[in-house]
Amino acid sequence: MKKCILxxxxxxxxxxxxxxxxxxxxxxNVAANGNVGIGTTTPNAKLHVNKIDSSSNFTVYLxxxxxxxxxxxxxxxxxxxxxxxxxxxxxxLVYNN
Length: 97
Description:
By secondary structure, this protein is mainly beta. Helix content is about 5%, strand content about 40%. The strands form two sheets. The chain has a four-stranded mixed sheet, with no helix packed on it. The longest helix is centred in the N-terminal third of the chain and has 4 residues, at about 10.
């Protein structure tokens, strides 16, 4: 019995998509260069998160391995501040008791 091994060049040639299906649209994508996109099919950064709903805020939580501790090690917010319009890429480091 012969094994079929696909060359890495073929596997990584254009775009590798990890699909979390909601209808027919991919929600998580990994580009050949290693960029990861959530809510976008063309990530242009190491982690590219695109808001896909109409809410004014979204948050990405980075937590330690003990989720029950509820300590937030990092929060990336998209916020609308009064009188200043929208701020993008606002990074908070928070300790939550």
